[in-house]
Amino acid sequence: MNITYCVSPKSNLGNILLFSLLIMIFLFLASCNSDKKMSDAVSHDFISPHHEASKQLSAAFSNTQEVEDTIPLTSDIAQLAPGSKRHSEYKIFGWHLPSNSKKWKTYNFDLLWGISYFSYSIDPNTGKYRKSENGADAIADWNGTAMLDSAQIHGCKVFLTVTNFTKSDNAKFLLNRSAWDTLLTHVTQLLKNRKASGINIDFENVAAENKNDLSHFITFISTGLKKVNPEYQVSLALYAVDHNQVFDIKLLNQAVDFYTLMSYDYYGRFSHNKAGPVAPLRKSSQWGAHSVTTSVDYYITQGVSSDDLILGIPYYGNEFIVAEDKAPASVAGFKGRPCYSSIHKKRLNNKLTPVVVNECGGEYYSYTEEDQIVQCWYDGSALLSEKFQFVKERNLGGVCIWALGYDWGEPNLWNLISDSLGTSAHVSP
């Protein structure tokens, strides 16, 4: 049997139109590639500075209290400027990593409004906290560290960060109601143990289909904690860009007391095209549509009250291996996230002159290592001061620091905050 396939002129026209449409889509996607900076957060798990720190803690944690007792303070830690006091209008909030050993002794507790221990990492199957990779009790330092006592003596509130990071772990936990009950029981006891003020929820890479589950969980844990103690506060870490629109702000406002905006890593490990600023204050044609300002505007439009929104401040930089020493420069690889103290020492020891990029406000320095050009981007003093002024102009709730101890006692950052958002900034000359 002979089968003849007949293709009509109308069918040919349809194929041509379909092919043309595919070409147009391809060209459009190619043109958008220059603003790809954070697109990895949509397609798969985005590894944020918080997530990366959690993984490092799990790998390195054995007995933090022993580490804390055996690592001495180094002689190059600067003394904090005296007289820094918190102001009633602004919350200075920071995350504390237990691996920072005695670095907490350089914290300015008189300036800090709240400090959040990082973290209760959830086992999504049970709601209990995860053990470290070597089986150690990863939350033991919460019960033993003198850091929390020191904070409270100075009137600084103490919080416990509750974390869950991957898409699969979030789906698993958010659909496991018995795990919610276990988590609530454990967290309640931990807060009681240290007379703490509440929790900071940091769930990252939540899928769009789990949006309602996330809202229900946050409502559940907030209601449960406030039944135990009406004074407990529940805060929520917001993404710089909510690609999947998982935060139902109008519903969450009923359960959340304040929000910590992770307004950093606009460029980072996922930036495959060009190196760029960690946290640009404004959007621009050169550095893209996402910025600290657009993040703030988005969440306020969604219903977050400006005085409940605390702006994230990165105490770290991003190091890129680049093709040439200019801005923007093509990326050949990502080297890492050095903390502020490492950046400061690198600049001083090697006499590196930073380049300020006015369009984004960020700055970078470059150096050569093993015949490769390394470009380190970070927020300099000028940009940080501008952000603190932005907080005041927009009536935001304050700033949140990722992470405390990354400055290793260098007083410059504390003094910047004190001058801008502490009581000294409001004293008449």
Report what the structure shows.
The protein has 429 residues and is α/β, with parallel strands linked by helices. It has a single domain (37-314, 380-426), classed as TIM Barrel. It has 14 helices and 13 strands. The protein has helices spanning 9-32, 40-43, 49-60, 64-70, 140-144, 146-153, 167-174, 177-193, 211-228, 249-252, 292-302, 340-350, 381-393, 412-421; strands at 91-96, 114-121, 157-164, 198-203, 233-238, 258-261, 309-314, 318-322, 331-336, 355-356, 363-369, 372-378, 398-402. Strand 10 and strand 11 form a beta hairpin. Helix 13 (381-393) packs parallel to helix 14 (412-421).
Strand order of the largest sheet: 1-2-3-4-5-6-7-13
Q: How many β strands by DSSP?
A: 13
Fraction of residues in helix: 25-40%
- Low-confidence blocks of residues: 1-11, 23-43, 62-78
User: Which geometry do the CA atoms define?
Assistant: globular
Spatial separation of the terminal alpha carbons: 100 Å
Q: Give the class from helix and strand content and strand pairing.
A: alpha/beta
Q: Please write the string of helix (H) and strand (E) elements.
A: HHHHEEHHEHHEHEHEHEEEHEEEHEH
- CATH topology (fold) name: TIM Barrel
Any guess at the CATH architecture? Answer: Alpha-Beta Barrel
Which percent range describes the beta-strand content? 15-25%
Instruction: Quickly count the helices.
Output: 14
Radius of gyration: 24 Å
